[in-house]
Automatic annotation (TrEMBL):
Protein name per Swiss-Prot or TrEMBL: Thioredoxin
InterPro entries according to UniProt: Thioredoxin-like_sf (IPR036249), Thioredoxin_domain (IPR013766)
Source species of the chain: Aquitalea palustris
All copies of domain Thioredoxin, residue ranges: 1-110
A Pfam match: Thioredoxin
Domain of life: Bacteria
């Protein structure tokens, strides 16, 4: 699965329980469409994801009343969380360079 530029609609958003039962590697991206830090990270994330087209990417809009972000203790946006078989194995908050994102994604490549 490739990089996604749009947020998942709230009515289609997975629950924490569904994500915990997910098999394989999954990159969660928590943020908001109006967030400047999130917007700035998009080209960096897109570039890093080009090297990992096999990695599933789920872009989740976070904010007031959104429980999924709270269940993952998201405090700042964007927050990238790498899951393997439903368990968190890596996290990156407010990435500001492609190398940092690639290093997070390399955890999936090294352990596949």
């Amino acid at each position: 699965m490739a990089y996604h530029s749009a947020f998942t609609p709230q009515d289609q958003e997975a629950s924490a329980e569904q994500l915990a039962s997910q098999r394989g590697w999954l990159l969660l991206e928590f943020g908001a469409p109006w967030c400047g830090h999130c917007q700035a990270a998009q080209p960096l994330l897109a570039a890093a994801m080009q090297a990992r087209p096999d990695l599933a990417h789920l872009k989740i809009e976070d904010g007031k009343g959104r429980r999924l972000g709270r269940s993952f203790a998201v405090k700042l946006w964007p927050t990238l969380i790498l899951l393997h078989d439903g368990q968190e194995v890596g996290r990156l908050v407010r990435p500001d360079n492609t190398a940092a994102i690639s290093q997070l994604l390399d955890q999936a490549a090294a352990n596949s």
